[in-house]
Amino acid sequence: MSEKKNIVEVELIKDNIIISGETTLDEQINAIKKETPSNLIDIILLKIPKKNALAKKDIIQKISEQSKYGVRELQARYKELQEIKYSKIIEIDLTKESVLLYAEDDKFDIGEIKEIIKFNYGYILDTTKGIFQYDKLGKFHEILLKPIDIIFKTKDVNLGNIDCFTFYFGESRFRNLTLRQSLKALESKTLKISELGRDILKKYFDHQSSKEFFVTRKAKYILGWDNGWDLPITEDYKNITLITHTSIQELIYQNAKNIIKKYNEPEKKDIKRKLKKFIELTQTDPLKHAIIIGWSIASPFKLYFINKFQLFVLDYLCGLRETGKTHLALFYVVYFYNVHKNYFSESILNNKSHLEDYMASSTFPIFFSEFTKVYSHIIDVIKESCTGVSNMSKKLPDQLLKVNKPKTAAIMLDSNKPIVGIDNAMNTKMNFQNFDIEDKIDYDPNWVDLFNELKGESLYSFIYDFTKDWRDKDIDIFIDGIMEEYKEEYLQAQKEDSRLAKTFISIMFGIKLFEDVFDIVLEKKEIIDLLIIGRTYISNELLDSFQNYCMECIHYADDKRDYEYDLETALTADKPYSVANPLMNYPSYLKYGLTLNSKGKYIFTTTHLNGFNRSHRNYDYKLKEIYNLLKDSIEDKGLLQYNDKSKYSIDIKGVGKAIEIEESFIKIEIKNKLG
């Protein structure tokens, strides 16, 4: 009798009591049997007119005759119900039917009651219309005007084993919120909740989640690959839930819900055909193209490579505009996975908090484009993420505890000029590809059409279907095959650098997986040579710039000496004459020359450094910093010495911090220079 249409109403019409105008009271009472629940009896007792003592006595007598209750029991029950109705609630279990009668009397629409929960301040009514309170004074109060349906809970280990709830409020779905977050979310969707209302909701959540049959799921913190795919589409059958702690992480989770699409066989063949044609029409060097593909396809498996090799490199595309590098990065990193809807800008890259938040959102790669400068502390964050998995640590506004979540996303960068400030240690943790004048491409409308068609497809679905049942051991087997097939190239890379060999294997993994999935053969010959060249490009570029600057300083010193001599000669001549000043032809940043001292060495001081920084993209190098970078770039370390008057430095009289440079350093040939 939980629906309103089944709740009988008793009216006193003269001397005859009628129930709902359909059956007489006698007929209704006669329907009561000894095994009948008390709901109907309560309803009849509630509607006995309070001032009609004869009617009350007669009705109670007739109910007693038809039920297992005696007259005194029924009289006590009548009194009990009246006390509840008239604001004198005692500790009893209310029935759904009686509460609905009270609500109807008060013209209070609470909908159908799903559950009545007793608590300190009366009763919580969980209904189809929302959450209500029926207090000890017999009054109804609105708490929430939409129903709540708690689906499951999980324990967030990163927040100290706190219960998190996933629930519907009306049609809105909320995921993995702590109780504190749940209340805040509910307040954002309804009227401000009073302190009592918050207590009522706390009691409601505790009551529902304590039920024996209530579903509890296992928390997962890594969206993407972690010894198997953990994605929104795998949550239900794996009985897991992916925890997100910030709005950025939740956004990426929501994006990831739509990255898988089921294609039929004709659709698959058509997409593979278009992708093959797209690659054939791409004007970029096929080796560079293959490396971009290999890195991109391997990047979601970054955790595997970090665990196996302690390395997964940054991919860095650098060079001239109109070489197609940004479009290829967008295609294979952004649109291929469709988790991040676009590239990220310099403002995000240089915001440590936002950068780490995105890195902790998934194992899918992130692309940063069109930046001019990367701060040293950001380089440190990226460098650290290439060799291990550290945590993003952040205190959330509505939590008392810090959350820790692993930074798992691989990063691709592109820029028009090389990043300044990258040391040799960073060089070994990135794959650098230079795009110069030879890489410039022409506009091809057919290529553009294919680009736009394919970027709208769910290309990652093909990778997922191929690897959805994989675990780390399956990648082991796949890589064993690669190392066997490319043993010679791997050993060649090992001779150069063990990290280079590991980078080669991870990129070849991505290339071979791409080939197997899409039935497309990529150019692979001499990839190792291109990786070796890329490894030395940044350090060589700095070395080249520094050597050129030093040569300018030497020429400046020579011209200054000659000019001063010519000027003195002109002024002391019998007929003084004017002398052209060659120093006016030098750039404004060049104010100090370099000359050999008595020991046959050049002394490069902070005054020279100021000019070099202005010439080298206005970067603020420190003297010791550039000394270390240059020393990392040369084989003969004795060509440079550092003086800062410390115990372990050289001693140059009359000079503060300085670099002592051998004359032969200026003439070093740069090996493996690109272009």
Number of domains: 4
Radius of gyration, whole Å: 39 Å
Q: Provide a count of the helices.
A: 25
Average per-residue pLDDT, rounded, comes to 86
Instruction: Please give the alpha-carbon distance between the first and last residues.
Output: 85 Å
Named at the architecture level, the CATH assignment of the largest domain is: 3-Layer(aba) Sandwich
What does the largest sheet look like? 5 strands, mixed
Q: Report the helical percentage.
A: 40-55%
CATH class of the largest domain reads Alpha Beta
Question: Largest beta sheet: what is the strand line-up?
Answer: 10-9-8-11-14
How would you describe this structure to a colleague?
The chain is an alpha+beta fold and 675 residues long. The N terminus and C terminus are likely disordered. The longest helix is centred in the last third of the chain and has 46 residues. It has 4 domains: 104 residues, no CATH class; 112 residues, no CATH class; 261 residues, Rossmann fold, CATH 3.40.50; 132 residues, no CATH class. A 5-stranded mixed β-sheet has the order 10-9-8-11-14. Strands 4-5-6-7 form a 4-stranded antiparallel β-sheet, sandwiched between helices. It has a 4-stranded parallel β-sheet with strand order 16-19-15-20. It starts with 9 loop residues before the first strand and ends in a 13-residue tail after the last strand. Helix 11 crosses helix 22. A hairpin with a 3-residue loop joins strand 12 and strand 13. It is built from 25 helices and 23 strands.
